[in-house]
Amino acid sequence: MPSQHTLDRHLRLIIGLLVFISPSVSTIVDQGDTGLLVFIIVLTLVLIPVLPQNIQLLKKEKILFFLLVLFFLFNLIPLLSGAVKEITFNGWIFYLFIGLVVPIYRFLRRLQINPGWLWLGLVLGCLSTGLGILISSMTHKALWGTCSFLFGSMALGGWNWFKNRRIMRVIPLMAFIFGFISFILSRSFFIQPNGFYRVIIGENPMALTGQFLGIFAALAILIGYSTKQFIGALKHQSDQIRALGLGGIVLIAGIIYFSLTQSNLSQAIPLPFLIFFLIVWMSFFFNEKVHWKPIDFDRNLSLSVIAITKNEADRIEPCLESVSNWADEIIVFDSGSTDRTVELAKKYTDKVYVTDWPGYGLQKQRALEKAVKDWVLSIDADEQVTPELRVEIDSCLKDDPKAIAFRIPWAVHFLGKRLDFGRSGRAPLRLFKREGARFSDAQVHEKVILPSGKIGKLEGRLLHFSHRNMLQALEKFVQYSWLWAQQRHGKRKITGIANALLHSSWEFFNIYFIRLGFLDGRRGLLMAILFWQYTFNKYASLWSLNIQVKKRK
Fold it and tell me: SS3 for 121-143, per residue?
């Protein structure tokens, strides 16, 4: 029985070769795209049960999974409704592939295949399809000429990968030129779009929309989301990620073109392959993002980090360690800890102050008043700054940014897992220009009050270990709900039990469905229930305070 390491090495070679030959085989070999899909489906079904699934998926990948599942479900509608009268073997394979696309993606992501297979495969695909127009029929010439230009353009996007290998520097440029010449010789640009495009603008636009509009809508959302990721990658530090972003944009253009020139996605000649290739491409793209190591910037603007604490001995060290030797100053305000919090904090800064507890807003304002640097990052003891976030902040503060503050997305960890959606997907305002800023005096859920100006949002995430365990989570929610009720009661606000039920029900619906909390699995459901309970307790507590006032009267 081979070891896991040996099995992974062999699988990387097999899938690498598959990726290498796929652009060529899928277009110039009869039924080549179907053969590729059958191979990857069988391989996934055989190996998924025996391979460990210990990969950390990004939030954006979970959204991608959700969109892929939607695409599959919309593909089933014409099938189950009888709109599709007859399905070929190729069609069934395409449906099966779309149904298994999530485990296939996880399988590809886990292997961490060398991207060289991808770029060289595109060059081979460009050459083989371009040469094919010399011997093919007029029908195939148009298809192959277009594919040659598509593959050559995508290979050109990988210039950053080729340029690091001297002998290969001219290969992507030659592939692009060859693909363009093949496109011209095939006269592909004279072909008038048919299929979906023709139906939409033709005499009977409902002929297709009633049966297949859902498929195209789901595909359009998937394409839009993928395009957003690729465009965002064009500004990335990594040459490889920028290359995959540029190539991905070209791939999306190809999918759009073939979608508009085919009347049925399951029968489109190159489209199943292009969707398969998009999944492969996204697996390479996100794998590079996960394993990318940031390059440090030298920022010109200074930064103060402020934190407030009380009995955080088990969490304060990882928090301060994440900003140590990076921030220009660290300021900690403690409100009477009875454990080793103050002692541990002094290992990282000499600016540790022990005070009374006036409330969250006023305590953070005290810390802010001690800060003297240009910008301020406000963090809690249960939060940690990631290396990627540090680099992004340094990049923003390299020169004077146009924004006066930035929101930073949370990466909440609950019961040993990271949550990406629901209330955990929020981005609180934590980084701001010190001059003119202050905290509100709220007892709980304080806000940063700023002068007028633009507020930006960073991509790097702030790790948030808000709940040590279930008991601490329940106690924290009860404390916060009572503080909220007291604060609202002080402002003479009134409510009732019906209002509590209405607000809590909406909170659950908003967190679990609108904010996609269900994508976080069982923990997402538990968190939605906790916030339902928390919201109910807030309004019920305020109602109880209202009742007490009425009785005294």
Answer: HHHHHHHHHHHHCCCCCHHHHHH
